[in-house]
Amino acid sequence: AGAGGAALGRAALAAPLVLLYYGFSIGITFYNKWLMKSFPFPLLVTLLHLLLIFALAALARALARCHSGRPRAALSWADCLRRAAPAALSTSLDIGLSNWSFLYVTVSLYTMTKSSAILFILLFSLLFKLEEMRVTLLLVVLLIAGGLFMFTYKSTQFNAQGFVLVLCASFLGGIRWTLTQILMQKAELGLQNPIDIMFHLQPLMFLGLFPLFAVFEGLPLSISEKLFRFHEAGMLFSLVGKLFLGGILAFGLGFSEFLLVSRTSSLTLSIAGIFKEICILFLATHLLGDRLSLLNWLGFAVCLSGISLHVVLKAMNSKGDKALEPHKEASSDPDLELLLRHPEHGEEEEEVVETPQQH
Fold first, then answer.
1. SS (H, E, C) the chain
2. What pLDDT sits at residue 43?
3. C-beta separation of 195 from 53 below 8 A
4. Number of C-beta neighbours around residue 213 at 10 A
5. Distance (Å, rounded) from C-alpha 91 to C-alpha 46?
6. Are 110 and 168 spatial neighbours (Cβ–Cβ below 8 Å)?
7. Amino acid 230: pLDDT
8. Average pLDDT over residues 142-167
9. Strand, helix or coil at 287?
10. I want to staple 190 with a disulfide (CB 3.0 to 4.6 A). Which of 22, 117, 289, 343 is the partner?
11. What's the confidence (pLDDT) of residue 50?
12. Cα gap 186→348, rounded to integer Å
């Protein structure tokens, strides 16, 4: 009873963060589809969002430093390139290719294909020993992935180019969140705080994505009336406002994602995101007119059964995880306090944070 109560307490504390993540994620999905209709330069949009996220993260770090009077974690360029570059590159390509795909695919097809990221995350989590190989875990993944496939089967128009872009983004997403979890568990880097890791990753992400932008969008953008050859100042200000809104959504999404993955694991984040994806599909049917068959709704039920099985398994394993709980609590400050965390605090916990979390 005590373990069950503790689990319910943790779930109640995590629920606002999950809802925050849902709000930003659902909002930016429909925002990207809406923006691509009027401004078909997804890589430029991504680069501008990265710059805005960097500025917001720098501002948050400055405010936290003024509030606490303590210096924030700071990595040299050498450390960034050696330790953080793989995570930054995979993240930038994941986001860039995802935004690019909105030029070709519907929200439903995007969501269905993007859900395959959980399979890649499972693969890389097992390779990096962040997750234990269990038959029940594979069953959960198969139920969720199979349910999502059935839920979207023949409910969207298929576009091969867009499908390949989303599939590549899903593969990179598996690498992205696995490397991000490893990076945040390295206590000697002092990057357990989501603001600090966003601050350090954005410049590397910008550098990693810029060559792709230069090759595919540089020339079309230079001759486009959307930016450099605009005729009305009002049109330009409207575009800047749209891009700024996207940057705010992207910052909020990145912040909420990093909070979730730092408190759980990359696989748990993806499974929690399944319900969010179902919400997106539900909204797409009402807002964008997608039609779903009986088979699609059956897939919805299968997906929910996979999520329910995961919840049951987590509850059954809570007793076994109880012995590890003091270590986990010691390495996880409350979320609001996490923003003001003293970088030296993590050095004392290096041994516990280095140990991969098992879920």
1. CHHHHHHHHHHHHHHHHHHHHHHHHHHHHHHHHHHHHHCCCHHHHHHHHHHHHHHHHHHHHHHHHHHHCCCCCCCCHHHHHHHHHHHHHHHHHHHHHHHHHCCCCCHHHHHHHHCCHHHHHHHHHHHCCCCCCCHHHHHHHHHHHHHHHHHHCCCCCCCHHHHHHHHHHHHHHHHHHHHHHHHHHCHHHCCCCHHHHHHHHHHHHHHHHHHHHHHHCHHHHHCCCCCCCCCCHHHHHHHHHHHHHHHHHHHHHHHHHHHHHHHCCHHHHHHHHHHHHHHHHHHHHHHCCCCCCHHHHHHHHHHHHHHHHHHHHHHHHHHHHHHHHHHHHHCCCCHHHHCCCCHHHHHHHHHHHHCCCCC
2. 93
3. no
4. 19
5. 11
6. no
7. 63
8. 77
9. helix
10. 343
11. 92
12. 12
CA-to-CA distance for 28 and 244, rounded, in angstroms?
12
Residues 132-149 as b/e (b if ≥16 CB within 10 A, e otherwise) read eeeeebeebbebbbebbb
Q: Over the chain, what is the mean pLDDT? A: 75
Specify the DSSP class assigned to residue 132.
Answer: -
Lowest pLDDT segment from 26-30, 141-145, 312-316? 312-316
* 250/252 Cα distance (integer angstroms): 5
pTM of structure? 0.73
Q: Please state, in angstroms and rounded to a whole number, the distance separating the CA atoms of residues 3 and 26.
A: 33
Kindly report, residue by residue over 212-271, the tens digit of the pLDDT. Answer: 999 998 888 877 766 666 667 777 788 889 989 998 998 888 778 777 766 766 555 666
Nearest residue to 25 (alpha-carbon basis) of 268, 270, 302, 198: 270
Task: For residue 26, give Cα distances in angstroms to 13, 59, 303.
Answer: 21, 25, 19
| Residue 356 binned pLDDT confidence (cut-offs 50, 70, 90) | very low
Residue with tokens 């995350």: 121
pLDDT at site 190: 60
Q: What average pLDDT does the segment 81-109 reach?
A: 88
Percent of the chain whose pLDDT exceeds 70: 70
Q: Which residue has the tokens 């969002």?
A: 49
Distance CA 176, CA 90 (A): 5
